[in-house]
Prior knowledge:
Elements: E1 37-39, E2 42-47, H1 49-55, E3 61-63, E4 71-74, E5 78-79, E6 85-92, E7 104-106, H2 109-117, H3 122-135
Antiparallel strand pairs: 1-7, 2-6, 3-4, 4-6, 5-6
Amino acid sequence: KLENGEEINSRKVVVACGAFTNFFNVLPSKRPLDLQLIGHSVTKFELSEEDSKKMGDLPTMMYKPNHNSSYLYMLPPIKYPNGKTYLKIGHVVYPSMDENKIAQILDSLDEVQQWYCQGEFPRAKEYFEKSFKSLYPGVEAL
């Protein structure tokens, strides 16, 4: 039932409200979903035109440095509307495999809102920079 009183009937419903699902009674049962919210970070490394060409047609990759670490994903160099080229690195992290301490467990509405507003997460950025230098020797981020 919508706020205006209108009813919509369906056999199936897809609820895709992300991290805020449990904070706003979106579901009719008012029972929270069994979710663990984890803040994920990304960093873009600006590349020179020369380094961008040197990297050629690099595919999108996933990389797991070792058995106890999170996964990194790397997108190929992409030219953005500002005319600059960036290589983007992010992570898929599970708290049980977070040897680099980059998982940000978010348990409350306040923590989720702060995470969205925080800007860069220094530990994650340091980890991405170290990984970038290790994976792409000879390529310098600007």
